[in-house]
Task: inverse folding
């Protein structure tokens, strides 16, 4: 019978190092995603609010993201750019990077950061 | 991309023909030289560019299966040879050439339309663009059907093609195929590029019905009852629909989150204004208030060079740099810094071109309305200058794509 620790891990599992590494990878990933730009709008995918989820588990990175509109001509290239950026992080196996494009919930302009809204002249 | 390059070249040839044919244009539209010029614009420039853009973007925009790239490539050569032979045959009044190359052009257009219609079987996003382009493609079959019969008639002399029958063919092409396609593309691209989300599409869909009813009625009445009041009634319906479309575009643009207006959008605004001007001229002509035949040419000029032409130029400032970016940088984006799509275009040249084209558009229209060939020729030179600057702005982006292999490098050393 296994007894789970409060954080969901099993006792005796040497995961402290993994957790720290995953946290570092996540921090690095958010940093790099802030440099992946929607080339048409000229604002990065983080400030546009396109990244719905970024999860790291034992070096494997999973991203759930969307695009500003279905039928966006960037539907392939932007998720590829996100995967490419994350694969550059030391300790990340490029084969363990998954980027999933989702359409629910649908992206709305309100998801943009204040910075992005300012850039576009919206506020 | 070769469709778009060929379209740019045809645009410059069309612009070259405007000052050159100024004395004819102020006299009549019913002239082989004018027919040649119009077909260079309609088939060589606008349809060629739309073909290139739709082959690439329609499947993505509508989440449908793309058509065969190999067939599209073969079709380009068929269609390009057809147009390159068709317009000069018209110009030289060479009847067999009109019939032969006209038949080839019909084959090329029919193949393109069939390929796109096949993509429709897998459409998942029935955005208004899908419906507008679908209607445009169906009108395209009617247009080339009429054109094919007229081309053969030119050769065999079966019947006299009246002005009204010619007008039916022209409206099928300009109002049916080209206008509906550009309207549909506008609904998609303007919303996408200006981040105008949440637009209510009910007016767009209702107006699509109104436009088709007006056009179908106008074409049928022009053929079967050209002297009847039905022509005026259906022309008025079409005019109302055009006004509603422009109002809906204004409504859409008011929702935009991207406030700064770009040079592409200036072109679209001129296009919408030209559509309204063409509507006013069309109503003047159909109600018998046009003082001279050159008003008919002015009507066609504002519809073709103004509404359709400026829309094509404006949209190509988005499409060509985007395709250039996609081919050049999409394989390395994320692994190293890459330019934005807008950085690829020389905005200064685009603005200079816009100024010359606009001056040319308005000047040629004025010259046609007052019947002065010198004004048309002088303004035509301005229009030609604008077209050359436009070509110089876009061809350096477009031509390399005909030979370049997409970038694929991805190295850890390349990270920013």
Result:
């Amino acid at each position: 019978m296994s007894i789970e620790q409060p954080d969901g891990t099993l006792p005796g599992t040497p995961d402290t190092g993994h957790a720290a590494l995953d946290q570092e990878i996540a921090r690095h990933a958010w940093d790099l995603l802030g440099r992946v730009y929607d080339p048409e709008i000229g604002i990065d995918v983080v400030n546009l609010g396109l990244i719905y989820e970024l999860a790291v588990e034992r070096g494997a990175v999973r991203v759930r993201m969307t695009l500003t509109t279905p039928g966006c001509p960037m539907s392939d290239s932007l998720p590829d750019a996100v995967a490419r950026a994350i694969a550059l992080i030391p300790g990340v196996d490029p084969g363990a990077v998954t980027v999933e494009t989702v359409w629910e919930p649908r992206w709305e302009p309100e998801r943009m950061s204040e910075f992005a809204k300012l850039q576009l002249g919206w506020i | 991309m070769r469709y778009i390059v060929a379209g740019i070249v045809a645009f410059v040839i069309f612009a070259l023909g405007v000052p050159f044919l100024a004395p004819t244009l102020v006299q009549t539209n019913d002239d082989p030289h004018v027919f040649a010029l119009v077909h260079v614009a309609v088939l060589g420039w606008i349809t060629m560019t739309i073909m290139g853009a739709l082959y690439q973007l329609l499947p993505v925009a509508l989440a449908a299966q793309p058509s065969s790239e190999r067939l599209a490539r073969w079709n380009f050569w068929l269609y390009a040879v057809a147009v390159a032979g068709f317009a000069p045959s018209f110009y030289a009044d060479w009847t067999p050439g009109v019939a032969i190359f006209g038949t080839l052009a019909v084959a090329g257009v029919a193949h393109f339309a069939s390929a796109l219609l096949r993509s429709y079987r897998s459409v998942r996003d029935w955005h208004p663009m899908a419906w507008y382009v679908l209607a445009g493609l169906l009108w395209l079959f009617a247009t080339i059907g009429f054109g094919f019969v007229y081309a053969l008639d030119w050769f065999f002399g079966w019947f006299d093609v009246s002005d009204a029958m010619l007008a039916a063919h022209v409206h099928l092409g300009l109002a049916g195929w080209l206008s509906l396609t550009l309207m549909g593309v506008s609904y998609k691209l303007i919303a996408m590029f200006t981040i105008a989300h949440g637009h209510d599409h009910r007016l767009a869909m209702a107006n699509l019905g109104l436009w088709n009813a007006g056009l179908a009625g106008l074409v049928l009445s022009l053929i079967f009852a050209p002297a009847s009041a039905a022509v005026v009634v259906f022309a008025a319906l079409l005019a109302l629909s055009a006004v509603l479309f422009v109002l809906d575009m204004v409504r859409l643009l008011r929702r935009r989150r991207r406030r700064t207006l770009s040079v592409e959008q200036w072109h679209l605004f001129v296009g919408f204004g030209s559509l309204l001007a063409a509507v006013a001229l069309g109503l003047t002509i159909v109600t018998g208030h046009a003082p001279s035949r050159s008003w008919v040419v002015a009507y066609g000029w504002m519809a073709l060079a103004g509404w359709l032409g400026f829309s094509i130029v404006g949209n190509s400032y988005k499409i060509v740099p985007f395709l250039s970016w996609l081919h050049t940088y999409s394989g390395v984006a994320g692994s190293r810094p890459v330019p934005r799509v807008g950085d690829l275009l020389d905005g200064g040249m685009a603005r200079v071109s816009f100024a010359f084209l606009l001056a040319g558009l308005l000047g040629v229209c004025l010259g046609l309305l007052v019947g002065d060939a010198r004004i048309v020729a002088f303004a035509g030179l301005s229009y030609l200058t604008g077209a050359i600057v436009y070509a110089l702005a876009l061809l350096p982006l477009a031509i390399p794509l005909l030979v370049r292999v997409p970038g694929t490098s991805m190295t850890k050393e390349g990270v920013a």
Notes: Chain B has a mean pLDDT of 88. The radius of gyration of chain B is 21 Å. Chain B touches chain A at residues 57, 60-63, 125, 127, 188, 191-193, 195, 197-198, 257-260, 322, 325-326, 329-330, 332-335, 337-342, 410, 412, 415-416 (CB under 8 Å). The domain at 2-402 of chain B is CATH 1.20.210.10 (Cytochrome C Oxidase; Chain A).
